[in-house]
What we know:
Layout (H helix, E strand, L loop, with lengths): L2 E6 L4 H12 L2 E7 L2 H13 L4 E5 L5 H15 L4 E4 L15 H26 L4 E6 L12 H21 L4 E8 L16 H8 L10 H12 L10 E4 L8
Parallel strand pairs: 1-2, 1-4, 2-3, 4-5, 5-6, 6-7
Helix pairs in contact: 1-7, 3-4, 4-5
Bound molecules: NADP nicotinamide-adenine-dinucleotide phosphate (NAP).
NADP nicotinamide-adenine-dinucleotide phosphate (NAP) binds next to helix 1 and helix 4.
Amino acid sequence: MTKIALVTGASSGIGQAAALGLAADGHAVVVADINEAGGRDTVRLLEAQGAQALFVRTDVTREEDCQFLVGRTLERFGRLDAAFNNAGIAGYALLLGDHTLAQWQRVLDVNLTGVFNCMRAEIAAMQDTGGAIVNTASIMGLVASPGGSAYCAAKHGVIGLTKAAALEYARHGIRVNAVCPGYIETPMTVGEETIFPQKKIAAAVDRVALRRMARPEEVAEMVVWLASERASYVTGSSFAVDGGVTASV
Length: 249
Ligand code: NAP
């Protein structure tokens, strides 16, 4: 039977790689993103791979968009088996005291409240059938570095939300886990629009045991596994995919 997955932030980077990976693992995929052009590209790639796909424009900061996303998924495919809550934005390279309240709020809204909004809708859809939810945190959900406090707080929050939801919904057969990517080559980090100075990225990669950034597909492997029955005894956990960064002091 074809399983049904939805992926937020699926227009590019880790989300797009996960959408393609989930399709290769037998899912029809609902592509959700604020970026319509990228979302339609992902749908084309999925269809070229022979998968069923649907794009739903979604701003994860808007509760009504997230409810609509899951509603459209159920309308089109009748069920929801797996959800990857991955949409996110980079934080500001600012000390805590230099953040404005609006900057703090924006980073929290997309990276944490966005996951909450999606999970609320997804859990309601999975309550009778069970399912698997994977949230994107970051190594900044496990450790911290100076100059990114809002992003760090949001990603730590994602890990807390993941643990709490896993405990609350285990009895409904819903597993909830998080992935914590390290330095991944995506438009967020190396694209034309990245806000990260490439010198800073190179210095960060120097601290990676494997001495390189990852491809988005290397994170997607973990997501696909967590979403599958192969991870049937795994819930409430967070998995670093970071080339060894967080193993080091
Ligand atoms: P990406 O290529 O920029 O993908 C993020 C996607 O999310 C983009 O398509 C973006 O659209 C979309 N998005 C932004 N705000 C949204 C909103 N409000 N509602 C719906 N979609 C929204 O970046 P990525 O590196 O794959 O990031 C994916 C996730 O991994 C993020 O949660 C990020 O924090 C996390 N992460 C990334 C790294 C890394 O090194 N790349 C490391 C750790 C964690 P636009 O293009 O229009 O902004």
